[in-house]
Amino acid sequence: MDKVDKRILQLLEADGRLSFAALGDAVGLSKTPAWNRVRDLEAKGLIEGYGARVNADALGLKIRALVHLVVSFDQYEAFEAAIVAHKSISVCHAVTGEYDYVLEILAPDMPCLDELLRTQLSRLPGVTRFNTSITTRLIKSGSRYSDML
């Protein structure tokens, strides 16, 4: 990956709807070579897809919780499959340390979060215990990975 590829990644992370002509102009290429570079970055797995950033608060998902879980080792596959299928869990990390996983859960209000934790999350395969923290403010989200290069 050269400087042009890095710049293409930065530009597309900032605006995934940028035309190939505009992208090419920004990096000193014509439209077709810019398109070829993007296609190659996609083929290499550096670009996984394109999408809109949606405002969770505007959708009514006002509660953001971080849940640290311990899961029975022999049930981690079933747990992970259940997490992938669950619509209220926006992020799941397998982690080291005292807990096995950290989840980010979005809910419209505290009663809904309480119901989700008590009747759904606690019954997922292998969950032995969990600890929940409520986010009071989101300070940073959606870092641009290409800026870290």
Please give a structural write-up.
α2 packs across α3. The protein has two domains: 41 residues, Winged helix-like DNA-binding domain superfamily/Winged helix DNA-binding domain (Arc Repressor Mutant, subunit A, Orthogonal Bundle); 72 residues, Lrp/AsnC effector binding domain/regulation of amino acid metabolism (RAM) domain (Alpha-Beta Plaits). With 149 residues, it is an alpha+beta fold. A four-stranded antiparallel sheet has the order 2-3-1-4. A hairpin with a 6-residue loop joins β2 and β3.
List the helices and strands and how they pair.
Blueprint (H helix, E strand, L loop, with lengths): L2 H12 L5 H8 L3 H13 L19 E9 L4 H10 L3 E6 L6 E7 L2 H11 L6 E8 L15
Antiparallel strand pairs: 1-3, 1-4, 2-3
List keywords for this structure.
single chain, 149 residues, alpha+beta, Arc Repressor Mutant, subunit A, Alpha-Beta Plaits, 2 domains, four-stranded antiparallel sheet, 5 helices, 4 strands, 36% helix
